[in-house]
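JOB MANIFEST
job_type = single_chain_structure
chain_count = 1
residues = 173
[input]
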Amino acid sequence: MNKTLLKFLATASIALVANLANADIYLGGGLYQSTLDADNDLGDDDDKAMTIFLGWEPPVIPFLSVEIAYHDLGSYKLSEDIEADLTAYSAQAVLAFPILMFDIYGKLGYAKTDSDFSVNGDKDNDSSSDPYLALGVALTLLPVVDFYAEYQRFEFNDDNTVDMFGVGVKATF
C-alpha cells in the first residue's frame, strides 16, 4: 500500500512539474499619458509615462497570470516651486476573459511608489506601498504577440493619484 501511494505521489509530482515548466512567460511594455492629481490645491499636471512588465501564465489556469512591473509615472511641475518625479514597482494578478481575438483583462496588486519632490530647490523623497489597479483590452494578431490599450491607477501618499492611459505590446515566449 505504501509503495503504491509513493508511486502515485511521484507520478503526480512529475506531471505537475512538467505542466509548470510548460507555462508561458511574457514580456511587454507600453507608453502612456499620465495625470497626477495632487491632494492639495496645486491642481493637476500631465506627462508621458512608461511601463515594462514580466509575466507568468501557468497552463493549469490559462486565464490567470501574475506579473511584476516597473513604472516610470512621469515628472510633474505642480507650481513654480514644486516639482515631483514618480516611479513605482508593482506585483499583480491578472484575470483575463478571452472573446474571439480579444482579451479583456483586469490587474490588481500592490505598488511600491517612490516620490522625489523638489520644493524651492530642496529635495525630499517619500515612498509608500498602496493598491494598484489596471483595466485593458488586448488584441491578439499573432499567437505570441498581443497589442493592448490599458488604463492604470496608482494611489499613494495620502490620496495623491496618478491615472495613466496608453498602448503597448506583449510578447509570449
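[summary]
Residues 34 and 164 are 4 Å apart (CA to CA).
The longest helix spans residues 2-21.
exit_status = 0
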